[in-house]
Every structure is written in C-alpha cells, then in structure tokens.
Amino acid sequence: xxxxxxxxxxxxxxxxxxxxxxxxxxxxxxxxxxxxxxxxxxxxxxxxxxxxxxxxxxxxxxxxxxxxxxxxxxxxxxxxxxxxxxxxxxxxxxxxxxxxxxxxxxxxxxxxxxxxxxxxxxxxxxxxxxxxxxxxxxxxxxxxxxxxxxxxxxxxxxxxxxxxxxxxxxxxxxxxxxxxxxxxxxxxxxxxxxxxxxxxxxxxxxxxxxxxxxxxxxxxxxxxxxxxxxxxxxxxxxxxxxxxxxxxxxxxxxxxxxxxxxxxxxxxxxxxxxxxxxxxxxxxxxxxxxxxxxxxxxxxxxxxxxxxxxxxxxxxxxxxxxxxxxxxxxxxx
Amino acid sequence: xxxxxxxxxxxxxxxxxxxxxxxxxxxxxxxxxxxxxxxxxxxxxxxxxxxxxxxxxxxxxxxxxxxxxxxxxxxxxxxxxxxxxxxxxxxxxxxxxxxxxxxxxxxxxxxxxxxxxxxxxxxxxxxxxxxxxxxxxxxxxxxxxxxxxxxxxxxxxxxxxxxxxxxxxxxxxxxxxxxxxxxxxxxxxxxxxxxxxxxxxxxxxxxxxxxxxxxxxxxxxxxxxxxxxxxxxxxxxxxxxxxxxxxxxxxxxxxxxxxxxxxxxxxxxxxxxxxxxxxxxxxxxxxxxxxxxxxxxxxxxxxxxxxxxxxxxxxxxxxxxxxxxxxxxxxxxxxxxxxxxxxxxxxxxxxxxxxxxxxxxxxxxxxxxxxxxxxxxxxxxxxxxxxxxxxxx
Amino acid sequence: xxxxxxxxxxxxxxxxxxxxxxxxxxxxxxxxxxxxxxxxxxxxxxxxxxxxxxxxxxxxxxxxxxxxxxxxxxxxxxxxxxxxxxxxxxxxxxxxxxxxxxxxxxxxxxxxxxxxxxxxxxxxxxxxxxxxxxxxxxxxxxxxxxxxxxxxxxxxxxxxxxxxxxxxxxxxxxxxxxxxxxxxxxxxxxxxxxxxxxxxxxxxxxxxxxxxxxxxxxxxxxxxxxxxxxxxxxxxxxxxxxxxxxxxxxxxxxxxxxxxxxxxxxxxxxxxxxxxxxxxxxx
Lengths: 333, 393, 283
Description:
heterotrimer; B: Rossmann fold; nine-stranded mixed beta sheet; 15 strands; C: mainly alpha
C-alpha cells in the first residue's frame, strides 16, 4: 500500500480490481438497449420477458460453472423449487410478487446451501451425475406429491396479485417484462460486484487448480459452498419470476430439459464472462422462436446444427468469438 | 316512377357496398397450438392431417370469410410456452379463434388468455373435465377421460361380467383420472376392486407391475397408459406373464389398442377390450368416406386425435356460418352452444350448459377380420355427457 | 422374487449393451459423447426398416444394426468428433447435444413421429415356467446375447493385441503414444465398436420398450447413470451397474411402486457419494 504502489500503480491489487469494475461503454449501451423492446417491438414483450428470465437463470449457472468450474446438469432443481414456492404460497393468501420472490429466494437458497455440502466434495463425472441426481429426485418428488404441486397437470389456482399493489400482469406483457428486467439487472449488479471482488478471484483460482488453493490459504470448500448457495438463490428467483409472469408452474420447471437448455444457452454465449449467459439466452430463444415459427415440426434440426457450428468454429462461445474478432480487428488497425 | 328508380338505385348501391365490404373483410385467423416437436409429436401430426383434409374438402372460407391458420409449436407439456404462444397469437397475430390443444396442462394455461381476451376457443383433444370451466368462451369437441372410463366401469360390472378387477394406471393426471372414473363406476355397479397400482409416467418395463396384478388373482384387469410406446409394451408384458386377453378381460381406454400397439403385439392382442369415442373401423357412411380420403392423402388410418381435429374445424366452420362471419367471442360461443351434427364418429353435439361435447361411446374388442387386427364395436352407450361436471351441479 | 430378479437382470442387460460403448470411450479419450444414445436409436431404426421394408427376419437385422451404427460412428468420429478431443468439457457437451437434436429431428423426418411396431418371431415370444418362475423367451434371449458379448469383450481385451492397445491407451495415453502406438486409430476403432454395440442394444430394445424419435434423449439419462455408477473404461463396471440398475428398478417398482423412479436416483447419488469414481472406476 505504501511507496511501491506509486511507481507500479496499475499493479496494486486494489487498483486491479477497481479497473475491472469500471463500466465499459458497451455495457451501458447494452443495458439501455434492453429498454428498446418496449418501444420497438411491443408485441414481443412476452418473449422478451422469457428471455430475461432465461438470462437470469443462465447467469446463476455461470457463477458456478463459468467462474467456479462446477459443471451442473441439474441446476433446474433450484429454478423449479423457486417457481413452485412462489406458485404454492400464492394460493394461500400471499399474492404480492416481491414478497413471493423473496420467499422463493430463501427456499431455493436453503436447498442450495444444504446440497452445497455434498457438491463441494466431488469432482468430474461424479459431480455432474450428483447434480443430475438431485434434480431428478426433486422432479420425482414433485410428481409424487401431486396433492401439493398439481403433479403432471401443473399447479392450479395460482393467484398472482398486482406488482407492488398497482401493476397488473396483463395480456401484453408490459409489467412482466419490466419486472423480469429489473430483477435481472439488480441480480446482475450483485454478481458483477461479486466476480470482481477478491472472492471472485479466489473462485477463478479454484476453477483453475482446486488442489493448490487451500495451500495458499483459500479454503476451497467454503468458497464453493458460498457461491453455490448464491447461485441457487438467483436460480430460485428466476423460477419465481417465471411463475409470476405466466401464472403457470408445471413439472417441466424441474426437468432435465430445462437444465440442459440453460447449459446450452450459457455455453453458446460463452461461460465465465457473465454477459455470455445473457447473449446465449437471447440468441437461443430468438432462434427457437423464429425456427419453430417457420417449421414447427423440424426446427430442432436447425437449432442442433447451429449449436454444432458454433462449437466447431467458435470455441469460446459467441462472446469468445466476438472478442477474438475485435482483437484481430484492433490488431490490424 | 322516380321513387322506384331511387329505390332500385338505393338497393343496387347497398348491394354493391355490401359486396365491397365483403371482399374487404379480413380473413378469420385461427391460432393452432399443437406439440409438433417432442414426445407428443405424433398426436400433432394426426390432428394436423385431419385439419388439412377438412380444409381441402370444405374449402378455405366459411361464413363468407376466408380462413387463415397460424400454427405454433408448444413442444410438449409446457404451459408457460403455450400461454405465451396464445398471448402472442392474440396480441401479435390478432387471431379470432384459439384451437388445437392436445395436452391438459397447456389447455389449462391458455384458458386465462381465452377468458381475458374473450376469444372463442375449441379444445380438440385435451381430456380433463375441468378445462371447459376455466373460460366461458371454450368448447370441446373431443372427449373427457371420465366419459370414457366411467362408461367402461359400468359396462365391466354389468354386461362385462367381471367381479374382481385389478387396476393399473400411469401415475399422472390422465391416468389417475381414468382410474378414479373406472373405479367409481365399477364399484357403483357392484364390482370389487381387488388391488391397484400406479406406475411412473416414463415407464419402460411393466413386468413388476403385471406380476403384482397376477398375484391378486383377478378376473379382469383395467390398464391405462399414455399412447406411444407404452401400450404395446404393457401388452407384451401381460403376455409374458401368461395373461391371455381371450380368457381374462383386459380392459382399457382407446390408446391401449391403437393401430401401432396392435401391429407391435400381433395376435397377442386378440381379445383386448377398450372404450373409445372414435375408431377408424366404425361402419357408418361418413366414416368410410373420411377414412378413405385420409388414407389416400396420408397413408395411415385416422385416430381419435384426427377426429378431434376434424370436428374442431367443423365446429369453427359451422359457427362462422351461423354468425354470418362475425368473430367476437360472445357471438361465436353462443352459436356453438347446442350445435348438433353427424360426424364420422357418430352423432354429437355441444352441451349448451357446459360447452362440452355430448357423443356416443363405444365398447370394442380386438378381433381378426379378413386377416387383420381391428377393433370391433359390440356395444354402444348413447349420448354420454361428462359425468364429473354433471355431479358438480 | 426370482421372477423380479430375472426380469430386472434382462432389463439391465439391455442398458448394459446401450452403455458399455460410452464407458470405454469416455474413459479412454475423455470425450463426452452425449449423442451415444442416438446410435442406439439408429440401430433400432435399421432393424425396423429392414424388417418392414425388406422383410428380413429379426435375427438377421441384428448384425446389420451393429455394422451400420459402427460405420456411422466411425464416420462421425473421423470428421467431427476427432477435432474436439482437446476442447473443453462444455464444448463437447454442446456439440454432442447438438448432434442429439439433429438426430431426433432427422429420425422424425425420415421415419415419422409414430411409434414403430415390431413383431417378434414366435420362438422369441411368450414365456414358459421353470420352477414356478415365469421366464419370458425374449428376456432370456436378451440375457444370452449380452452375456456372450460380455465374454467376447473381456476376452478380447485380455487376449488380443487390439485389446492390449486399448488398455494401454486407457491407462496412460502419453506413454502409449510415446511407445509408438497409433492411439488415434485405436480410438477410432473403439469408438465405432462402442457405437455398434449401442446400435445393437437399440435394435434389441424395441421389442421391450418401443422406439420413437425421442429414444435418443430418453435413454441418455439411463446410459449416464450406468456409466457413472459403473466406472469409466470398465466393462465389468458397466455390467454390474446395469444389472444393479435393472434389478433395483424392477424390485423398487414391485415392492414400493409409490416411489417410482425416485429410488434409482437416490441409489445413484448414494453410490457416487460413497465411490465417486464409480464401483469399478480407476481414478
């Protein structure tokens, strides 16, 4: 902190982190442009709110996958738990969305915390399969307790009240998109702060070399538990927003398909960059919407092809590819 | 004289005006939501085939207006997606009618949209009783699970002659509804349920459950599985355990003896009894023509998904004719209530009170006719209404 | 009880055939191939097509299913997968999921969405009693085929040169390369062998569990469970894991049907927590 920092100012840890947290012009442009759908494509606001929810879910997965290196193919467990919590509680008198959101966050966070003790002890294939197993068990549990969850028919009788007592969730999706966008942005701010903090750096260290980290005084397990819990909280919030904006919850919020979809969106956009999840969600869901409109029966094929091409020619996801392009362009000029 | 010519001129002008406005009327847009991809894709194929056939045979206009169909893929059981698609159809594409809807969770989800936007909605397949109660603009042209299974239950105890039945169903909505319906009617008619078991929805192997059935020594078995790969699998499992449908009554709902299931099991399936609201084998003139045209275009036989699509389009067309092309929700549902017609499945009508379907239900047995396995009707229960809603009154 | 054991074991053998290829290729090259079950689906469709369109007898279609799946596997490995061996786990996951999507849509396009009917010849249908236990002929056939293949594979690994090459490549790839072993070629052959076995498994599966385009995704989960519980690159591990899965699934459904598949997932998590590398895994 003393005299050395004068000559090598850029290299002091505090300045390093501070430089990372400064807002890039492109970031500001991006967030402003998320307001455009209200004006440009007001008929697509429902789709936009679905994209915002998927982006939030993808960011929560990025925290553990992109930054801590935990490959999870069962992250929908927390998403679904949040959705069901919001839906079920709404049937019993509590209908204000923000209250339900907080409740869902607490419940998912609790499960996340509990499971993190298991998660932090395993690696590789065992870890992947355990994450899958937890999600599958939760799915079965929801199916078996159909008196509570509505089972395969979906949760019935969800009563979502107006947001903050005034804004009703209407047919046009204006409130839905505004709500989803605000939740996405606030959670994004939290994650951004987290990533560019010493805690975030430790996580990246764990991802690169989990064995060495405890040797330099950063206890891996505790850190992993912390980030996993946070990821579960955010995933639960995403699920709750889905339940509230659509007034529907069905078993598929806990399904393997949903875990697989968010994984695809994150890898497509580029993991470990926080914005990758957002970009991936936009591209995947818009492509899916367009392809299935053109060809309801075989759109799967084109999505699959798109994924294969992205992997073969853009190894770090779309965002990685964009970064490479801009670097090359900048190097040329 | 002048008055007459003015009168003629006035009449000519109004006819001209009417013709011009007629020609300028926008098409009636129908939003068709079906699971074109995913594990229920085949049901969407069958339904869409029938819809295309109906339009081909009856032209693409009704009530003086052109018909335009906008197709959307729900991808399977995905109520949030179905709801969003319905909202987009209403808001973006400005549809006048919502239809399709094979799966109950999706139908329940779009009910809100139907009610809020006041759009005439025709359910072409989803079979849970309460669906039509969720929106006053909904009508159904398919069937409800209790209609089929309660009829089978009463039949099993009376004309069927069984006294001890073991029930085995898939552990989710439609399976549980089927079980409830069958058991209630069977017990009311004096039969005894000697045991029951529910298997997981995606169940590849039935051997364990069939063993349980056998262990309780029944004289009849009631089975319900979703269509697709499971009917054939359960048929084979029954056969592997030595249960012969020719000796013990094996009863179930239509999908248990679908064409694919029969083709897969071969002669093992002879004797299976099922209850259905439609079979491509029905011997009326309308059906023979329908099946012939369907097979000519699509190289397969229609099934109950197809007839749902066919009669759904028929209802929409007839309603438009009755309202003279008017498409506001009130007018259309008003016209739909009480509408009666003869369908390839037999006579049917829309109940003015519940907006649900009233139709004949058939009890059929798998037999060999001219070397092929077919479902042959041998008992008909006329004008069946949905019993669950009838009891709710 | 014996009946449950028998039926469960037969079901397990089916899962074994579908999974063993993935266990070996995952253990050898660390290549995450989620499209493995698609090869199973392909084998199934080959059998269906040969039986329906060309009237082949069922038994004759089995080698065809194996060979065609093996060939397709070889082609895909050569032109697509080989470039991805050094890619990250995540990229491999994305690539192979993309392949699964394309295979499902392709199958729906070529063969339609309808479930494929397949009638077994008489000598493979029905059942007979042995000491009070119901033995279904088809299940017996399945078990025999699986056991024969297991013996061939274990024998092949132990006593053939190719088997030795596989074992070398699995144990220490760098060293094997250093000693002049053409690891790429070994892997290519192993991959096609594994895909061929999956195809065979798929062909055999139709008569028991049916076939439609969703097969590729539906059985992926089961295959992953067998591979992770059994341990990578272990034939014996896959065998034991698959048998365990089949028997416990069947027993669970018979004795505690209310729990459904819950029991299987709990068991998997439990075993993995106790033995993270799988029952017979090396790492």
